[in-house]
Specification:
By secondary structure, the chain is an alpha/beta fold. It has 4 domains: 6-136, Response regulator (Rossmann fold, 3-Layer(aba) Sandwich), CATH 3.40.50.2300; 152-259, PAS domain (Beta-Lactamase), CATH 3.30.450.20; 263-335, Helix Hairpins (Orthogonal Bundle); 344-493, Heat Shock Protein 90 (2-Layer Sandwich). Helices cover 44% and strands 23% of the residues. It is built from 14 helices and 17 strands. The protein has helices at 17-29, 40-49, 66-76, 91-99, 112-140, 145-148, 152-159, 178-183, 203-213, 261-298, 305-335, 348-365, 386-402, 461-471; strands at residues 6-13, 33-37, 52-58, 81-87, 104-108, 163-168, 173-176, 226-230, 234-244, 250-259, 344-346, 369-374, 382-384, 409-417, 420-427, 475-481, 485-493. The strands form 4 sheets. A 5-stranded parallel sheet has the order 2-1-3-4-5, with helices on both faces. A 5-stranded antiparallel sheet has the order 7-6-10-9-8, sandwiched between helices. It has a 5-stranded mixed sheet with strand order 12-14-15-17-16, with helices on one face. Helix 10 (261-298) packs antiparallel against helix 11 and helix 11 runs parallel beside helix 14. The longest helix has 38 residues, at 261-298. The two termini are 68 Å apart. Bound molecules: adenosine-5'-triphosphate (ATP) and magnesium ion. Adenosine-5'-triphosphate binds at residues 327, 395, 399-400, 403, 427, 429-432, 440, 445-447, 452, 457-462, 486.
Length: 495
């Protein structure tokens, strides 16, 4: 519908001059600009030229009659409000006219007040319609306006230090700021309007942005960030989000590009620092641990229980520290990309047997059963550093023992699937709440609840496991149900 009207303009179509002029007087006092016609044809002609908003239409006229004029006005589809004027005797005509789209009717003869009330109501309705339309227009204005608009928002986007790129639902770029061009080394005078591929060379990122632009992601939390590794040791972090309209419909995507090179460099320094410090701490601590153990052994029979307790606690704490430092060392090695020290063929079945043997003592202390089931023997070996592999399975089985109540069951399976060796560590312990599933692979993350409160640990086990599995080109997955148990699956490729 083309709603092109001026709420200040009224047309009176009536064959009786007295009525025409009378209406004109009243309407003029209401600040309307009034047009008059004595015939339907004449009225329609005026409508062709003037953006009239309201028409007062007499039903009984010579020439084409009111009903026909009404029909033609409706066909114009301009949102014009028609107020029909009829005699008492023709109430049916009024009803018929309303059915055909007239807005209201006034019986003839009418009092000036009657006309005022009806016309005022029509004017108010027009005003509201216009306002709604304006809002609708604003809403509909596409993202494309962003680029040309001289708005303050545009100025702000232009001056942001972060790169900003906006795409529409077709993945076409509608806006990009100078920082974006600078970060990605694009020409300064590059304009929006092209396909995303002409601005971002990383195929994966392009695909992600197009997916978001088309409204594929409903939950923002599911949208992954993307790291770009550029020449010259530069790192960029890209974060994209859908741009939503008023009704939460997707209008496109906005991508934010941040230069994280400095952060990366600091991270590297930190990793090196941690590696160095832990390395330096490990040997003196081991010495202290040994000396404490000796002192504890050599203690006289007469030593007080308290002395013994203090010493053994000190010994336990040092042991804990050494293991934490070991974890930190492993981690920093993994981060530096030197996880697999020297790869050699490892028989995973044999490795698992010895780990299960070794950890069986811990399980037995908690009255848990720890069993190993191997299928598809003889199994091929895997190229890896045996210590790293031991760390993977050892950590998973230790976790299963730690996070399962006394008397529980821990089962370890090993078999071959396709080109992978699969190990499943399954327990019927406390389980992990779904919302922590991703978190547990983060460094130092530990789930805190009633069950785990008294279990000590540093939260480095799983990040180490994941780091090693990734570096071996493998895959790790976890399934869990709180109160029922947890099952970790590790796939490692057979080379
Ligand atoms: P450590 O560094 O000594 O291994 P940790 O065991 O707390 O400390 P992770 O091995 O990384 O650290 O495990 C992280 C968290 O995941 C644990 O704190 C625990 O809450 C949860 N978790 C891991 N394995 C299981 C499991 N089999 N059952 C239930 N929760 C588990
Ligand atoms: Mg652990």
């Amino acid at each position: 519908m083309k709603n092109r009207f001026d709420t200040g303009k009224v047309l009176v179509i009536d064959d009786e001059q007295i009525l025409r002029d009378g209406a004109e007087r009243i309407l003029k006092r209401m600040d309307f600009q009034v047009f008059k016609a004595s015939r339907g044809e004449e009225g329609l002609k005026i409508l062709e030229q003037e953006p009239v908003a309201i028409v007062l239409l007499d039903m009984k006229m010579p020439g084409i009659d009111g009903m026909e004029v009404l029909k033609r006005i409706m066909e114009l589809d301009r949102g014009i409000l028609v107020i029909v004027i009829t005699g008492y005797a023709t109430v049916e005509t009024a009803i018929e006219a309303m059915k055909r789209g007239a807005y209201d009717f006034i019986p003839k003869p009418y009092e000036p007040d009657q006309l005022r009330i009806v016309v005022n109501r029509a004017r108010e309705k027009m005003r509201l319609t216009q306002e709604t339309e304006k809002l609708e227009m604003e809403r509909k204005r596409t993202l494309a306006d962003l680029h040309t608009s001289q708005s303050r928002v545009h100025t702000i986007i232009e001056s942001l230090p972060n790169g900003v790129l906006v795409t529409d639902t077709n993945g076409k770029v509608v806006l990009l700021n100078p920082a974006f061009k600078q970060h990605l080394g694009l020409a300064k005078d590059l304009m929006p309007g092209g396909d995303i591929g002409a601005y971002i060379y990383d195929k994966e990122l392009c695909k992600l942005i197009i997916d978001i632009s088309r409204g594929k992601y409903v939950d923002f939390d599911d949208i992954p960030t993307h790291e770009l590794n550029l020449d010259g040791g530069r790192f960029l972090l890209a974060r994209s989000r859908p741009v939503l309209g008023e009704k939460r419909e997707c209008l496109g995507a906005v991508t934010n590009i941040m230069d994280i090179s400095a952060m990366k460099a600091l991270d590297q320094l930190r990793a090196e620092f941690v590696a160095k410090v832990s390395h330096e701490l490990r040997s003196p601590l081991s010495t202290i641990h040994e000396q404490l153990a000796m002192a504890l052994n050599d203690m006289d029979e007469g030593a007080s229980e308290n002395e013994q307790y203090l010493l053994s606690r000190a010994k336990e704490k040092t042991k804990g520290l050494i293991s934490t430092i070991g974890d930190l060392l492993d981690l920093s090695r993994i981060e530096a990309g030197i996880a697999s020290k020297e790869s050699k063929p490892v028989q995973v079945d044999e490795l698992l047997k010895s780990i299960v043997d070794f950890l069986g003592v811990q399980a037995a202390a908690k009255k848990q059963s720890l069993t190993l089931e191997i299928k598809d023997e003889p199994l091929p070996s895997i190229m890896a550093d045996p210590m790293s592999l031991e760390s993977v399975y050892g950590n998973l089985i230790t976790n299963a023992i730690n996070y399962t109540q006394a008397g529980g069951e821990i089962k370890v399976f090993l078999d071959k699937t396709g080109t992978n060796l699969r190990v499943i560590v399954k327990d019927n312990g406390y389980g992990i709440d779904a919302k922590y599933m991703d978190k547990i692979f983060e460094k130092f993350y530990r789930v805190k609840n009633e069950n785990t409160r008294f279990i000590t640990g540093t939260g480095l086990g799983l990040p180490i496991v994941k780091g090693i599995v990734d570096s071996l080109g493998g895959y790790i997955d976890v399934e869990s149900e709180t109160g029922k148990g947890t099952s970790f699956t590790v796939l490692l490729p057979i080379k």
